[in-house]
Amino acid sequence: MTISAVQVRGLVRTFTLKGVLNGIDLDIAPGEFVALLGRSGSGKSTLLRALAEIDHEAEGSGEIRLPERLSVIFQDARLLPWMRVLDNVLLGVPGREARVRGRSALAEVGLAGRERAWPHELSGGEQQRVALARALVREPKLLLADEPFGALDALTRIQMHALLRRLSDVHDPAVLLVTHDIDEAILLADRIVMLDDGRLAADLPVDLPASGIARRERIAELRALLHRLLGVEEAPADYHEDTTPPEPAALGRAI
Amino acid sequence: MNAYSDLRVEPITVQKPRSVPKQRLSPGKPARYGILLGPALLLLYWTVLSVTGWLDPRILPAPWTAITTAIELIREGRLQENLAISTWRAMTGLGFGVIVGVTLALLSGLSLLGGYVIDGLVQIKRGIPILALIPFMILWLGIGETMKITLIATAVFFPVYINTHNALRAIDLRHVELAETVRLTRWQFLRSVVVPGSLPGFLTGLRFGVTASWLALVVVEQLNATSGIGYMVTLARNYAQTDVMLVGLVLYALLGFGSDAIVKQLERGLLSWRKTLGR
């Protein structure tokens, strides 16, 4: 058995502000990109907050094993408005040489030269990129992201998808991305985990073919399945009439 | 000859370049010394009333009388001497008031026990007007400088404490969460989140505190003082020297106005990261 970056056993949260968890078992391999899907109130954010160890108000039990170095990205960029961009990136990272790393992290997210800007001088997408730089400069083994693109416009979101995918390939942390966007999950993740009512409802590998018709078909299959699991009607424009929705078992392990 | 040569060139009406649109809901860009307009108008009004003789000099002397009397007082050395002692009292009281206010606000804002012990007491004490304390202050501390400075410091303490305490309690929980996820130490958390986050509240308190210090000064200097602007005014009142009384009043106004301007300047420098309507 391979060593996990994240190991969760029997995680229960009975009282939280954001939803409950009824016994979660989850493993994430080092470098694996996992998307966590689920309806509102299914417990996605509760699980992420438990992993980030910021769910102080919660009551429950269970076992969580995490790497020492982990970073969190929130839905809002959560920059400190009284610190310049570079100081925000380096929040809590001591040392002179850190400034060099901070600069290169900003360059990686395309914000070289904006080190001395105030957060309010940046656009929403740029602020979120600063948050990404702040996460990466800590060289995390696990990156937790709670709907990080939810507040961005469609175009910026597409750019951010590409950026996150590229940077997670370069830095290779395990990633747990909470999202309610099915296409975002399929596009970015190696594996999609679905929560429903505080339980794991599905665990599907994405394994997209590199290109061509096979890739499009696999995306359509996954999308249809995920829509069905989430209990929502799919938009007809995305749907091939001749594609019968495949059996869940044919695609992956449906719990 | 080319294919385009027979095309007629239509004259294009060039639109007048539009100036940058004004921000409709904002009062606009502030003029540099705009704040002086109100005082200048008052001075003008006063001058006109004095020149036309509508204002009896026994009720309120003319503005230039204030200036000539001030020059005279400076020549005698009385003005600068009294001004120095008054400023020293106000500043010392302000200093102690700010130190105690901030310290107690930090204790009660950042620890639960501190909040239970300190905040309740302060809220009760707040119900008692400062001036009502004067008899006890005199009983405990006498009528010397200690009593005067203690009273000024007490007056400064309340606005500083209350505003700083509120600002500390209003620190954004999301920033606290962030501090936890980036594993800030308690000290780093204080330095990078708590202090800058509560600075706007503290500075508001400081502005009120500065005003309170002058206010308390006026009161304590009329109590058995033998020096200071208040003493000068009290003495002048006994001899019905309205011009000296007026100089005292103008001095208080200038001191209050000047010190408020200093704090505002401080605010502008320290809070340059803020984007607000008023700047």
Automatic annotation (TrEMBL), chain A:
Belongs to the ABC transporter superfamily. This is ABC transporter ATP-binding protein. It holds the Pfam family ABC_tran. GO terms for molecular function: ATP binding. Residues 6-222 form the ABC transporter domain. Keywords: ATP-binding, Cell membrane, Membrane, Nucleotide-binding, Translocase, Transport. InterPro entries: AAA+_ATPase, ABC_transporter-like_ATP-bd, ABC_transporter-like_CS, ABC_transporter_ATP-bind, P-loop_NTPase. SUPFAM superfamilies: P-loop containing nucleoside triphosphate hydrolases.
TrEMBL record, chain B:
Its main location: membrane. Pfam families: BPD_transp_1. It is found in: Cell membrane. It is a multi-pass membrane protein. The chain crosses the membrane at residues 33-55, 94-118, 127-143, 149-168, 189-208, 245-263. This is ABC transporter permease. InterPro entries: MetI-like (IPR000515), MetI-like_sf (IPR035906). Belongs to the binding-protein-dependent transport system permease family. Residues 83-263 form the ABC transmembrane type-1 domain. Keywords: Cell membrane, Membrane, Transmembrane, Transmembrane helix, Transport.
